[in-house]
Amino acid sequence: MSKLRGLEKNDEDVRYSKTLAYLLRHGAEKQGLPMRKDGYVRVVDILDEPNLRALTFPHLYHLVESNAKKRFVLFYGYDPSASRPERKKKQQGQTKKALKLQQDRVQEDVQKSGLPTVVGNAACQQESPLVPLDAPQVEKYDPEHPASGNQQKPDERSPTLGSNAKEPEWFIRAAQGHSITTVTTEHLEPITSADEEGLSKVGEMVHGSKAELWESIRETGLSRGSRQHIHLARARSGATSGPRANSSLYIYLSLPRLLTQDPPIAVFMSTNNVILTPGNAQGVISKELFSKVVRLRRDISRPVIMNEAQGQPAAKNISSQESDIQQEIQPAKRDRKNRERPRFIEEVIWENGAAVDPPRSVEPDETR
């Protein structure tokens, strides 16, 4: 059986989630999974993947519902499209570059033949929107007995819709983060105005990165890379859609500034409240559009506990201040992951399109 993605030491649910994220964001074409242009894949096709065949539907449903970042979306209904793409043979040993060359050759052959050309997957051109139906109750997943539970395929519990109607079934997609080029933005909410309504949805936007990448970003701009979009979060938005916890560089963007470019830089909102932008025609947001950049710098200083009466370092057994600090440190010592967690100073290094030199230190709550 194929291995799940992630490290073997990771929790099994984490590895299942990583595998799902890879398939639904990046790997569907390589694996031969039929994917609609809105990013949906039939659940029965997902559960038929070699490395997911031990996954039951109640377990999959549990993974989606319990995901803290709400990375996946389940849909129950039917596909009224005239035709549906068949599952393709898995593509092995082909890089993205090789696949692109293969697609270019096919397109060139079609053009030489004089036949009408269609950009993208021909089956996608005939797609109709999925029709939602009331979802049946899903048996609760029991982690103590993961292999028990509902083994019935999720598309076999469907009511009769008539002889000409498609049968309802479950579909799943990633909320955002696709690198698959056939997935469109139809499932995303466009933010087209910087009015009160638009600002209430996205506010001030922030992208989390690494401090060591700043010089490269400053030189070339913020790039979407191989993905369709640059991922942003609403500043002070909380954990659901915020930047990664290990970010050490925060790039702030203004909605009015993006929308007033010529042409405007598109902004979208995903179902899990991640803000997305494709950038300009080159897939980049230039440094001139950064409203602010904040860098985290490690604080190497150490507090000195002073005796108030003598102005000298206090003895350890008489300092109430040190006692307070020790009480603060003790929980971190009990938590091995946080025991040696360093403290950081936040510095504004870029503001309103220009470098801040020297950097300006700020309080943490001023930036996030």
From TrEMBL:
Regions of compositional bias (Basic and acidic residues) in chain numbering: 331-342
Function comment: Catalyzes the last step of tRNA splicing, the transfer of the splice junction 2'-phosphate from ligated tRNA to NAD to produce ADP-ribose 1''-2'' cyclic phosphate.
Protein's name in the database: 2'-phosphotransferase
An MF annotation (GO) of this entry: tRNA 2'-phosphotransferase activity
EC number, as in UniProt: 2.7.1.160
Residue numbers spanned by region Disordered: 82-109, 126-163, 310-342
Keywords carried by this UniProt record: NAD, Transferase
Similarity section: Belongs to the KptA/TPT1 family.
One biological process term in Gene Ontology: tRNA splicing, via endonucleolytic cleavage and ligation
Ranges annotated as biased composition (Low complexity): 318-330
Domain of life where this protein originates: Eukaryota
Source lineage: Eukaryota, Fungi, Dikarya, Basidiomycota, Agaricomycotina
